[in-house]
């Protein structure tokens, strides 16, 4: 048995009544093996649960998996860009591919690849335990919950980002500031909202629970929550939108309500995706270095593959505020004017 | 020698003075080989130019390359989404990774992978010849030039898309319609502009060369060309922007000039990326089924890998017009009003 608990190729060769060289040829898809022999050897390999260790390509580059959530957001593209800039060969798997009865953890760990980079919207306890217990090294990007040192991870300073976004709005003179987070339990969203609370409290302002909303990190969530916010008796004059996609939903909902951004409503995003610059108006947003997070995680995985030890504490890369054109001081009429416009629209 | 003109593993084993089983262990990164032996065998494998044929993963899925242009556009993400929905394992390579002295064709063909899906901004004649002459099957997605039957390809009905976009603007009453294409020689861009010309000519309208502009398919190109168009003595009342990213640049340039979309300027995109729906206003655009193009190309590559023959003529998937909120009839004042607003801004 090998280190992976697999049959040796010698044992398979003996059982099939062929040479080791023949088994090797079958594994390498060589043509100089008869169809019958090929089928017999493949059957035995399958029966013994043989997993070929396809760890490196022809140029000695490690072959690893990158597990991404649904490929429906530029967020995934930014991370991919960073990962592919590393000296790893990366097979992309999306959770939306419909894994069927096999869990994605089993798929990734059973693929015979050297390691895995994991970006998933919710890492469950069983998934975390499965990854942590596997021999295949894994690094988690933008973790959704505390990893308690069981897996190395790379994230961003989300709390500091939330703090900077909210302070920017406070400095412009806003006092009725709403925040739309991501799904309730997601770590990065909770940290951003913590930063929002800390910014308000440091100025002696109370947090109004009506202005703190969960979202989905997508356009739809930003749109729906903004419609609800604008129906409040005392609507906000600014929204910290939690993600750029959500910020685009806020801008869209404002437009539907007849409000101008930033004149009537200031909006701050989070991520600094390319689309933040393309938006009209270009979005003020908190930049998290997604591509750099991807590259850093890939370098950490490479180090693990080369036998280095890594500290298991989370790595956090710095966020920074990018001020563009979606934020401005509240208009003279302030909240009242927003309310009046909403009432008219 | 094997079919690939490579050394047999037996010859490498003999030269290294070890058994074939030991060579096999080295190739599989097994730990039960001494460091010295491992290094000697690896050196010999390298010296003989050995390319392991890493064609399938542990589950029998083919391992192929996907060559994408710079990963800076949601366009690439859409294609990737379609490709990963196929039963292929896909290693993503980006042309922006800095291939160095080795061309990307050599990298892809020398990786030992089973096949390649290729999306590149410009496929040069030498690259096309190199791919067509290789044993590794390749399928081109959204080809940038005619492939003359040397490689199978999947594209979209770009001419029909350009026709539909321009007819939509004509039907709204526009007569001064500009078009911004992609880089001058790119096939899909030329086809879209052909459709634009055909639509105008079928209504007996002459094509004004001032209104036909090359772009770069990015925000910057749309922005710069729109600024130039708005400086014309007789500016357009509508722009067919050639791509969604370029359309966002047109919208941004209009905003900078104090023009409202669609009231003062109608804008039609091309692609129907998710960002087209998130934009304010949501973009009227020509949908090309990028994900479906990716999936179709993957299925064609799979067929080639399984030994099927494919027709070498280009496959074209249908485009369709999505009417949203960035197009409207020209305002009463028409061109004159646009000119007046531009003069004021």
UniProtKB/TrEMBL annotation, chains A, B:
PROSITE patterns: HTH_LACI_2. GO terms for molecular function: DNA-binding transcription factor activity; transcription cis-regulatory region binding. Residues 7-60 form the HTH lacI-type domain. Keywords: DNA-binding, Transcription, Transcription regulation. It holds the Pfam family Peripla_BP_3. It comes from the Bacteria. Coiled coil: none annotated. This is LacI family transcriptional regulator. It comes from Microlunatus flavus.
């Amino acid at each position: 048995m090998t280190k992976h608990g697999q049959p040796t190729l010698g044992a398979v060769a003996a059982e099939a009544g062929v040479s080791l060289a023949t088994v090797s040829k079958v594994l390498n898809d060589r043509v100089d093996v008869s169809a019958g022999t090929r089928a017999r050897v493949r059957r035995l390999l399958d029966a013994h649960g043989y997993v070929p260790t396809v760890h490196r390509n022809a140029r000695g580059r490690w072959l690893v998996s990158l597990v991404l959530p649904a490929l429906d957001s530029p967020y995934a593209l930014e991370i991919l860009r960073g990962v592919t800039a590393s000296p790893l060969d990366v097979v992309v798997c999306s959770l939306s591919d419909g894994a069927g009865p096999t869990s994605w953890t089993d798929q990734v760990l059973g693929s015979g690849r050297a390691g895995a980079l994991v970006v998933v919207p919710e890492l469950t306890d069983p998934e975390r335990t499965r990854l942590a217990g596997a021999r295949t090294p894994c690094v988690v990007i933008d973790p959704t919950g505390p990893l308690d040192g069981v897996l190395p991870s790379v994230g961003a300073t989300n709390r500091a980002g939330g703090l900077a976004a909210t302070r920017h709005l406070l400095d412009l003179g806003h006092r009725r500031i709403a925040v739309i987070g991501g799904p309730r339990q997601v770590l990065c969203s909770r940290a951003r909202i913590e930063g929002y609370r800390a910014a308000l409290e440091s100025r002696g302002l109370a947090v109004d629970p009506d202005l703190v909303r969960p979202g989905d990190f997508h356009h739809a969530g930003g749109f729906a929550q903004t419609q609800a916010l604008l129906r409040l008796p005392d609507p906000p004059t600014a929204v910290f939108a939690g993600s750029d996609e959500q910020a685009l939903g806020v801008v869209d909902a404002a437009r539907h309500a007849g409000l101008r951004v930033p004149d009537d409503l200031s909006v701050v995003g989070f991520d600094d995706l390319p689309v933040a610059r393309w938006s009209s108006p270009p979005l003020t947003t908190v930049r998290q270095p997604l591509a750099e997070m991807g590259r850093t995680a890939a370098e950490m995985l490479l180090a693990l593959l080369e036998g280095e030890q890594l500290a298991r504490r989370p790595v956090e890369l710095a966020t920074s505020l990018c001020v563009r054109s979606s934020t401005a001081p509240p208009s003279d009429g302030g909240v009242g004017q927003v309310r009046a416009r909403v009432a008219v629209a």
